[in-house]
Design goal:
mainly beta, Immunoglobulin-like, Lipoxygenase-1, 4 domains, five-stranded antiparallel beta sheet, four-stranded mixed beta sheet, 4 helices, about 5% helix, elongated
């Protein structure tokens, strides 16, 4: 009996337990906003934006869990699968009717429920008011959490503490630990990002299972402390588990339904070998190119313990090398995709890109290399054939030039039919063909082909292209090449020019003016500085003036306006 009495005292007396991170002062509820979403949900990006605004306006008091569930989340073709084993049961108990739907602390709010009866799911227009309402209510339990990841073993240790400032109306509560991953790029219908939509707050696992761990000490003064060890897998449904993008959200429920309060934390990291270490992880795949200018996208990660604020990067495209300094802030294990400045290159059939970070404590991970091909050439008119499924109205396409200007387009189409169109392009140049599906699931049956007048296949797909696909084709368009780095001291003016072009500082140089296809339009040997060049016959557009003198070549871009 004495032992039991001491135990009761320990549970009831705040000074008697080894509380480390949770507050013992009475607090208001914190909001756990669970959003039911999917990659093919047209209005889900609006829901994401609303939820993010609620969190931004209430830092430290609102925690978001995006649950990919239902038909809008079922992947098509090669699209990623963001679903979890836990989402369906959580969604079902909410009694949601449409997407996006969300629950605020899994509470039933009369007048806001989607089904109008007793479900906890609400449409996005109600989330803000109901979150604000919840934040103003007292909570009888406080929660806190912290986590650490040992990067050498990929083991996460999660500490969760709860302190009861009041007594729960239920004899048992349930402690839930949700694992979240941020910054996952993937497809999203609408959202204006195509396959590069940034998915945030994505539920990847429930560490404590479907409905959490049962807690039976739920009276005033009770203190709960739990430590969980979680082995982080390499991936979730084939999507890499990024250690630097993980987040922990914890919450306590009265039953499986009502959330009392919660909290969240970003893990700290241990097991890092170096203080200053930049990992050049990858270079984004580069499609075929026919325009001689390229800005590679490289992903860098901070694998050191110090915060990164700048990284010197050098990148070589075939025989040309450029330099760029990235600035920003990357904490340990955080990564960022850096779009390097677009620079000219010389075509070589199989082209090579190498990116290298400046020297640090570990130079073994500072370099990545990739290759890309010259674009396929074409002949004459193109024939586009599209065989639609039962949703032909979702299919559209266009062809754009190297500036991104739309040259021609087509669609939408009827259902379960074959459509053939002839595409005549203005001139031999560099183009990109784009096929779109507004729903994001491609063609469930049928297909698409684009061939030239010799039967050469430019693009072909059975329809498994999700929200869209692209193919660059055409003839090489030159830009300022290797000679851009040489100078003979020449200056061209006026630029833009109308009828006359003057060149100073290039006496006795040979001059050739090229169009964007690399065709020589005008030339002059033994240039005299006092003699202007007649460009009145040139039409409006972009040209290149290449001047060669004593083995040195200088190239300048020239604009002609009429």
């Amino acid at each position: 009996m004495k032992l039991k009495a001491l135990l009761i005292f320990a549970l009831c007396a705040p000074a008697a337990f080894a509380q480390t991170i949770v507050s013992t002062d009475a607090e208001n509820k914190k909001v756990i906003l669970e959003e039911f979403t999917g990659i093919y949900c047209v209005f889900c990006p609006q829901g994401h934006e609303i939820a993010q605004t609620i969190q931004d306006n209430n830092p430290g008091d609102v925690f978001l869990i995006n649950i990919h569930v239902g038909s809008y989340s079922v992947p098509s073709g090669n699209d990623p699968d963001f679903r979890t084993p836990w989402g369906t049961a959580i969604a079902n108990q909410s009694q949601l009717v449409g997407y996006p739907a969300g629950t605020v602390n899994r509470h039933f709010f009369p007048g806001s429920a989607q089904n109008g009866a007793q479900g906890t799911a609400m449409s996005r227009g109600a989330w803000t008011a109901r979150s604000n309402e919840t934040l103003g209510l007292a909570s009888y339990v406080n929660m806190a959490t912290e986590a650490n990841i040992d990067v050498s073993t990929r083991e996460m240790t999660i500490l969760v503490e709860a302190y009861y400032t009041g007594t729960s109306p239920e004899p048992s509560n349930f402690l839930n630990v949700a694992l979240i991953q941020n910054n996952t790029l993937g497809p999203q219908t609408s959202g204006n990002a195509g396959n590069e939509y940034n998915h945030m707050h994505r539920l990847v696992d429930m560490v404590t299972g479907q409905w959490g761990e049962e807690i039976t000490e739920t009276s005033t003064g009770d203190f709960i402390s739990r430590t969980y060890t979680y082995q982080i897998p390499p991936d979730f449904n084939g999507i890499p588990a990024e250690l630097g993008d993980l987040e922990v959200v914890v919450f306590m429920t009265e039953t499986t339904q009502e959330v009392i309060s919660g909290n969240g934390a970003y893990p700290t990291f241990s097991g890092l070998v170096h203080q200053n270490d930049v990992f050049v992880r990858s270079i984004e795949d580069i499609s075929e190119q026919c325009y001689g200018e390229l800005g590679p996208v490289v992903n860098i990660q901070n694998t050191g313990s110090d915060t990164l604020t700048s990284v010197d990067l050098s990148y070589t495209i075939n025989d040309l090398t450029y330099n760029y300094t990235w600035t920003g802030e990357l904490l340990s294990l955080q990564s960022e995709s850096v779009e390097l400045p677009s620079e000219p290159f010389n075509f070589s059939g199989t082209n090579t890109v190498t990116v290298t970070a400046g020297a640090d404590e570990n130079n073994s991970n500072n370099t990545q290399t990739t290759t890309f091909a010259d674009a396929q050439e074409y002949s004459g008119d193109l024939t586009l054939t599209i065989t639609t499924d039962g949703w032909g109205s979702e299919v559209t396409w266009d062809v754009r030039d190297y500036n991104g200007t739309m040259v021609t387009s087509g669609g939408p189409y009827g259902n379960n039919s074959t459509f053939t169109e002839t595409i005549s392009l203005p001139a031999e140049s560099c183009y990109t063909f784009n096929i779109y599906d507004s729903y994001g699931d491609g063609l469930l049956s049928g297909g698409v082909s684009l061939v030239d007048d010799q039967g050469t296949i430019i693009f072909e797909s059975s329809g498994d292209y999700g929200s869209g696909a692209s193919k660059t084709f055409g003839y090489q368009v030159i830009t300022l090449g290797a000679t851009d780095h040489q100078s003979i001291g020449a200056i061209i003016y006026p630029n833009p020019a109308l009828n006359v072009l003057n060149i100073s500082g290039a006496e006795n140089a040979s001059v050739v003016i090229y169009d964007v296809l690399g065709r020589a339009i005008l030339s002059q040997d033994q240039l005299q500085n006092s003699t202007p060049i007649d460009v009145s016959t040139l039409v409006t557009g972009t040209y290149f003036v290449r001047m060669t003198l004593n083995g040195q070549t200088q190239t300048e871009k020239l604009l002609i306006t009429k």
